[in-house]
Amino acid sequence: MAEVKLTGLSKHYGDFAAASNVSFDVESGSFLSLLGPSGCGKTTTLRMIIGFEQPTAGDIFIDGERINDIKPWLRDLGVVFQNYALFPYMTVAENVAFGLKQRGVEPAEIKRRASKFLELVGLPGKEDRFPRQLSGGQQQRVALARALVIEPRVLLLDEPLSNLDAKLRAEMRFELKRIQNETGVTSVFVTHDQEEALTLSDRIVVMNHGEVVTVGKPKEIWERPTSAFVADFLGVENIFAPDGFEPGAVVIGGKRFAAEHDGQGNRLVGLRSTDIEIGGDADAGLAGRVQQTSYRGSINTYVVDVPGIARPLYISTATDLPIGSNIVLKPRDGAVLILDPDMEIAAA
Ligand SMILES: Nc1ncnc2c1ncn2[C@@H]1O[C@H](COP(=O)(O)OP(=O)(O)OP(=O)(O)O)[C@@H](O)[C@H]1O
Ligand SMILES: [Mg+2]
Questions:
Q1: Which domain of life is it from (predicted)?
Q2: Which residue has the higher pLDDT, 268 or 264?
Q3: Are residues 157 and 240 in the same domain?
Q4: What is the mean pLDDT of residues 231-260?
């Protein structure tokens, strides 16, 4: 187990900053996700930790030791990629044994450790198969065993579940969590899937355009996203400019709703579609008209026009709302998010 620290890490390709002043700590034994849209610099950051890319600026520390100038294979890291990258002409056992052989471990000990880690990843008895004789999920388990068998200081994973179908992906997510818990290995996990990051991580680093936008625990980031970009990326459906702010409140469509903010203007508000109540006192709420509905099973999402708000609101509710019906709606107590405007809001 080891602690990882990045300070002011940047990677420039010519004029282009693929990663810019990236700083964060990964506590020993914890699981941290780098979350962000395609091209935001997640892989670039991971590759600098691995040693495949040399930083343009900044430092990488493992347990307080600066590792910028240490060769990748001497950094003692376990790495798992999206495409498994197993050796096709080696059996499962040989794949898993590879790192131990390179390190000159005794054959009997290699066998013992390879079996132990294949058991850990849920693949006992598959030692003599070749990668092509395994499913994608099984191959990814082999890749995980191969990375863990050397008992690395840090495990680095770049979208390891992306090639799996939805069901297997969800299953492997639990497996990965279990394996990380059992080994206690410090892990840095790259993903663009918010749900994956939320369920797996102790902490999440959200990136955009090569920069760190926010760092926090999943619950903090989910419940209190601080910026429009983060809120949007985490699936907050309604983000818009309010009429204005008053002490302890925000004015939307001419009505006041309680909201905590520091009195600074130029903010946006965010409202999850599931955080809007329907019915109640017409004077205290907003009048809206249902324009569209999308059936999702037990909960449906409605697009509702609200005079005074430039964009229609998305509302998710179990209540059946026919198109054209007039409703009264209001945010649930405490549900109005106040967001820094770090993103363009598309016109309605
Ligand atoms: N060797 C390179 N030369 C020039 N530009 C590069 C190089 N490697 C990466 N980039 C650019 O840097 C940016 C960040 O790339 P990176 O691979 O880190 O993104 P990512 O967040 O991992 O995205 P994805 O989710 O699509 O994997 C991209 O715009 C990419 O095109
Ligand atoms: Mg990537």
A1: Bacteria
A2: 268
A3: no
A4: 92
